[in-house]
Q: What sequence folds into this?
């Protein structure tokens, strides 16, 4: 009897069996968006996650059979051009403990690969009493607005992590489908829990060049001007001895048109009346070829009109 009691007591005093650690999962999304001409484009994206962080990867060279170079034909001629892919791809990293949200973008001439340190913005979701099935998972509907777009998302509490595709997050379960009129993500494969060796690695993106989100938005809004400045720093020229210049810098109208085709339309620090275009005359004089713009015979944008009236 003493032996039995001793054995029971020993079992009680032994360390409990290790709990399952931090299970890892991975979702493969089919990503669709519409071009300005209405053409549909599809890409594959992997979202790898655990209870702390997630990393989405798309537009990488080993995905969709892409090699980083695209061949474009025009009659009998073939032109080799840089594709929308590179060796690391487009990445979205989110850490719910440190509140980091970092994106990584591929090199786009004349700029090298970059990372962007974005804000952690909580999405105000409204959860609906609507359900359906996706890949065997029961998912629930939610609607939320984020940076000018209203998203409809379908999440599952069977995977209770608050991550989703692209910049979407904050629901009580992984998002398996999300979209609006322009963008759409749908899970085509779910692995949870996964062997870590069979998933992408969750690592913080890193590149030598880094921007805040405000800096990055200003750069992309005024890409023509900043591209010329970058080319000039690299001593690139159209003709020997002449700095590279553009014909038309962005206007408020053209910036807004471009924004409406992106996932982020209106940022939390601005409103529709915010001035986004560059108006600094020294910068415009250094990067815009006013003479060539006049010779093109098309109505010049606002900045050029201002200069011609000086």
A:
């Amino acid at each position: 009897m003493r032996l039995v009691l001793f054995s029971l007591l020993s079992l009680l005093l032994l360390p409990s069996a290790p709990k399952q650690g931090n299970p890892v999962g991975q979702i493969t999304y089919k990503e669709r968006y519409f071009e300005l001409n209405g053409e549909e484009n599809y890409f594959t994206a992997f979202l790898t996650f655990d209870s702390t962080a997630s990393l989405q990867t798309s537009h990488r060279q080993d995905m969709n059979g892409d090699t980083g170079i695209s061949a474009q034909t025009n009659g009998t001629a073939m032109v080799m051009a840089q594709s929308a892919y590179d060796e690391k791809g487009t990445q979205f990293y989110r850490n719910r403990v440190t509140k980091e949200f970092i994106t990584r973008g591929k090199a786009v001439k004349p700029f090298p690969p970059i990372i962007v340190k974005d804000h952690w913005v909580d999405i105000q979701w409204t959860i609906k009493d609507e359900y359906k099935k996706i890949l065997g998972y029961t998912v629930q509907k939610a609607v939320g607005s984020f940076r000018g777009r209203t998203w409809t998302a379908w999440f599952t509490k069977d995977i209770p992590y608050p991550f989703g595709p692209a910049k979407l997050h904050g629901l009580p379960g992984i998002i398996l489908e999300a979209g609006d009129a322009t963008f759409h993500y749908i899970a085509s494969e779910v692995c949870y829990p996964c062997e870590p060796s069979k998933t992408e690695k969750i690592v913080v993106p890193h590149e030598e060049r880094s921007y805040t989100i405000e800096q990055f938005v200003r750069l992309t809004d005024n890409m023509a001007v900043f591209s010329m400045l970058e080319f000039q720093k690299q001593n690139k020229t159209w003709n020997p001895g002449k700095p590279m210049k553009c014909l038309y810098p962005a206007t408020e109208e053209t910036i807004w048109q471009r924004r409406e085709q992106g996932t982020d339309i209106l940022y939390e620090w601005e409103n529709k009346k915010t001035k986004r275009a560059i108006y600094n005359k020294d910068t415009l004089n250094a990067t815009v070829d006013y003479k060539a713009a006049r010779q093109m015979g098309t109505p010049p944008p606002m900045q050029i009109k201002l200069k011609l009236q000086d």
Notes: The chain has two domains: 24-66+83-198, 222-308. Residues 1-19, 70-81, 302-310 have pLDDT under 50 and may be disordered. The chain has seven helices and 16 strands. The radius of gyration is 25 Å.
